[in-house]
Amino acid sequence: MKQRIRKVGGVALSLALLAAAGWAGGAWAGPANSVPELGFDPAAAPDSVLERAGLGTLAVPDIYGPGKVSTVCNVWMKTTNIGALGNPFTAQSSDPSGQWPGASGIEYLFAVYLYVGAKDATVSDPLLLRRVSHATEWRPPTADERDRIYQSFDGQVNGQRLVDDDSDGAIDEDPLDGYDDDGDGRVDEDYGAVSQQMYTCLMDDNTEAAINTAAAEKHAPRGLRVRQNSYAFSVPGANDFASIEWEVENISGHTLDSVYIGVRYDQDVGPISKDRYYSDDLPEPRMPQGPDPTIGGDPDDPANPNYIYLERVRSDDPRYQDGACTLDTMAVSGFSLVDDDGDLGLTPGASSIVLLGHTVDPTGVKAPRRVGMHAYAYYSPGVPYVQGGVPTNDQERYEVLAAGGASGDPHIDPATGLIPEGYIPDAGEIGDYSGLFSVGPFLDFQPGEKISMAWCLAVQEADYTKPRDDLRGRYEQCIQNAVEAVKTYRGAYESRQDIPVPGPTDFGREACFLKTPTGPTELADCHDDSVNATRVLKERECTWFDLDCNYCTGVPGLVLKRWAASAPPPNPQLALTAGDRQVQLEWDNRSEYTPDPAKATFDFVGYKVWKAANWTRPVGSTGPGDDLWSLLATYYAYDPGINPLELKTADGRDSTVMVPLLLNRETGDIIYPSDVPCLEIAPGVCDTAYAKKLTFTPTGRDSTIERYPVVKYPIGRYRFTDSAVLNGFTYFYSVTAFDSTGRGRAVAKLEGRQAAVESDGVVPQSAFAAAQNDGKPYVVPNPYRGGAQWDLTPNATDPTGTHVDFFNLPADWTRVRIYTVSGDLVQEIGPGDAQSNGRPQRESVDDGQASWNLVSRNGQDIVSGIYIFSVDSPSQGTKRGKFTVIR
Q: Minimal CA–CA distance to 36: which of 54, 13, 55?
């Protein structure tokens, strides 16, 4: 079967071949917008090869499966620490790039690459004056294991946002990266975690690995470090986009100038099962984008193809108090790639990239005055750069970042910040498109300074039956999804201590500025401009300004908390153990000891246990889709301290249960906490989380208990056994947590998303039984007739997708050997050998089963015939058998 290695003729290339082919980080001398494969496994390469590549034995790029994929939301996007998002490295991993919804096999992204261009006046060579660090020219800072991708979630201990977690007087001062960023001798003790699933990492452009990136043009680093944060939300309204925040720091030791941050994108929309699914796409720059509220524009005017978000502010909203804010407005800046016809129903959605925010300067001296794209371009296949095609070197890349390309047209209307109406391809110009957009410029970029930008990949359903010019009719859900993404980024206002807030007269002013030695002494904002006035900056006290020209943002006495969305409890950590015709699930109580990040309460209600079976690994699928998940049970937490549970004992007598437990209200089944030791923070001292807890009395009224303690326990706290399984088949499980928000008719249940990737699958294994087959091993299926019920679709790491299994192996078996009838050794299998799923053959003490993928020791598929096998065991000697293969 053809491997999912796209746009390179179906061949994975080595780094040496990439250099020979003239790859320049996303551009080829061959087909336009092609993207290469790494083509080798650094973990298996000799040290000499690694040293020449500038990697080292531990500096393996985090691109290998199972990778860091945003599985809690509907957009499954992969994060790497090598300058790429998505999965262009399909020879190394079968992870999705940007599938929606979930593991559907329908892609809405191939890859996104980070571009940062800068002018370095300290260099003498004019060819090095303006260069761009791009794609795989970004690498982890060191080869140390700590320079990896970290995972966190909103509400995690030490990761509470806008909270002094370590009581040192500073807030969120030690970002999650494995380093002691604040110099207090502790690591990652006070950072701000965002969303239900957050991935964070560091990338530098000046490491040995980055400098030695194989390309036609030698990489010239600018001396930059990027902190990359990936966010995914699980709640409706915020779960159809995956967001990225890049913070760029100048670590060069000298000033850089004219800095631009760019997103080089290749969206590729369609089902992976369809050959060349990416060849019938169309750019749609008109959607989703809406006019700046300061410019105006009637959203109800049929002649206006854009729109604006309008929200009537509630009378009880604190923003309404001075009467200036009656209608909240907001602009949306983004663009999309769509399929020409929805692939006849196979591709239900459209892929949008939405700019959410970036560093601004109200003076316009060092950064743009407002958020907006600086330049935008899309590229048609096979078009040379001088005619509007893909840039192939740093000079051209910088030209695109700064001016849009060879034409010098940035394709952004400076008056509105929108992509012009005329920059749209005809409906007949379908193809494999890619593109780039930038923000900036950022001027006088001093050592130690930081600039940032945030964007998201948003996917929602499109109505491809509507005319293309009917933007609202065709893309109504996509537009609303983009609005929800911007609203989530904009955040909400909260009351916090020890954080500067706008004063009583600073209504609508959301940005704090201090007087600096080299900066201006007076500034003006939208409020001041209306009366032709300015205000004097103070040195040690915030002067507040209205940068977004919106009277509904900036609330006196409250702090703006960006990335605000409702949050269910995080799902517990889960471990699976395969047995003989059963699978045991074990999980911890993380969901119970994580306070709600918004309410600071323990509002956990219960768990749901999910199972997925009959997965055949459809082409492009990285795990079971939503349609395969079935709910096994729902368990509610039961606290006997609030309301003791009356049960019947085995002899029919009443019994009062006085221990915490999980109760299935439908079946009466109970999960009692297992006797596992709590997590200790010191010898004999259990780690405990404290928060308020929302509980319910028998009359239904809620009560709040302050400083409610919850002891932390490891995996094994709860156990659930599923016996409705067959040996040799793959199953997936997920345990989600849910809470209860609101009261009465407004009550809503928020819960995590069930999800799993292929590596999470578990296979029940038979145990040895002396009474079975006279105590001898045997093979299933026998005969093998070219397929089996447990067969999966082949992929790059599992070229056959099938297996035969040896059953009834002794517990101490040491080797299985397969021979032809003429006595030629075909293959050997040991208990520690791994199959395509990466797990050893002996998965438990009683595992009496082993798999063989019908590939010989020479790497060839075996032919039809009769095969002999032998099983060695110290306790039972050597036992033999035979089986038949019919191709």
A: 13
- Average model confidence (pLDDT) for the chain? 82
Residue 458 backbone phi and psi in degrees, to 5: -115, 135
- Cβ–Cβ < 8 Å for 287, 304: no
Radius of gyration of the chain (CA): 29
CA distances to 367, 417, 638 from 261, rounded to whole Å, are 12, 17, 51
The whole-angstrom separation of Cα 762 and Cα 729 is 8
One-letter amino acid of 435: G
863: how many CB neighbours lie within 10 A of its CB? 10
3-state secondary structure 499-535: CCCCCCCCCCCCEEECCCCCCCCEECCHHHHCCCCCE
Contact 603, 596 (CB under 8 A): yes
* 791-811 exposure pattern, b = at least 16 Cβ within 10 A, e = fewer: ebebbbebebbbbbbbbbbbb
As a three-state string, the secondary structure of 699-720 is CCCEEEEEEEEEECCCCCCEEE
Confidence of residue 286 (pLDDT cuts 50, 70, 90): confident
Residue 706 sits at the vertex; the CA angle it makes with 705 and 710, to the nearest 5 degrees, is: 85
Burial call 610-648: b when 16+ CB within 10 Å, e when fewer: bbbeebebeebbbbbbeebbeebbbbebbeeeeeeeeee
> How many whole angstroms separate alpha carbon 297 and alpha carbon 290?
9
Q: How far apart are CA 103 and CA 623, in angstroms?
A: 6
SS3 592: helix
| Residue pLDDT, tens place only, 37-92 | 233 333 333 333 333 333 333 345 777 666 799 999 999 999 999 999 999 988 77
Phi, psi for 320 (deg, rounded to 5)? -90, -5
CA–CA separation, 255 vs 787, rounded Å? 64
Amino acid found at 623: G
Distance from first CA to last CA of the chain, Å, rounded? 16
Q: Which residues pair with 355 in a beta bridge?
A: 333, 455
Whether this prediction's pTM lies above 0.85 is answered by no
720 alpha carbon, distance to own chain's centre: 29
Residue 675 exposed, middle or buried by CB count within 10 Å (0-12, 13-18, 19+): exposed
Summarize pLDDT for 569-585 with one digit per residue, the tens. 889 999 999 889 999 99
Q: Can you list the positions of beta strands (E) in 56-109?
A: 68-69, 76-79, 84-86, 98-99, 106-107
Residues 111, 86: contact at Cβ < 8 Å? Answer: yes
Given phi > 0 = left and psi -120 to 50 = alpha, else beta, which region is 775? Answer: left
Contacts 24+ apart (CB under 8 A), 171-178: 171/498, 171/499, 175/200, 175/227, 176/150, 176/152, 176/200, 177/150, 177/201, 177/202, 177/227, 178/146, 178/147, 178/148, 178/150
Spatial contact of 76 and 127, defined as CB atoms under 8 Å apart: no
Q: What is the pLDDT of residues 635-660, one digit of tens each?
A: 998 765 555 555 544 455 555 545 67
Asked if residue 288 has a cis previous peptide bond (ω within 30° of 0), the answer is yes
Cα 883 to Cα 236, 729, 782, distances in angstroms = 52, 20, 6
663 Cβ contact partners less than 8 Å away, ≥ 6 residues apart: 635, 636, 638, 645, 669, 670
**How many residues does this entry show for the chain?**
887
> Whole-angstrom Cα distance, residue 588 to residue 574?
7
Q: Could you tell me which residues are beta bridge partners of residue 283? A: 337
CB 103 within 8 A of CB 625: yes
Domains defined along the chain, listed by start: 574-760 (no CATH), 772-885 (2.60.40.4070)
Long-range contacts made by residues 385-394, C-beta under 8 angstroms, separation at least 24? Answer: 389/32, 390/26, 390/27, 390/32, 390/33, 390/434, 391/27, 391/436, 392/24, 392/27, 392/29, 393/24, 393/216, 393/217, 394/117, 394/130, 394/131, 394/132, 394/134, 394/217, 394/220
Instruction: Give the residue from 438, 456, 689 showing the smallest Cα distance to 563.
Output: 456
pLDDT score at 382: 84
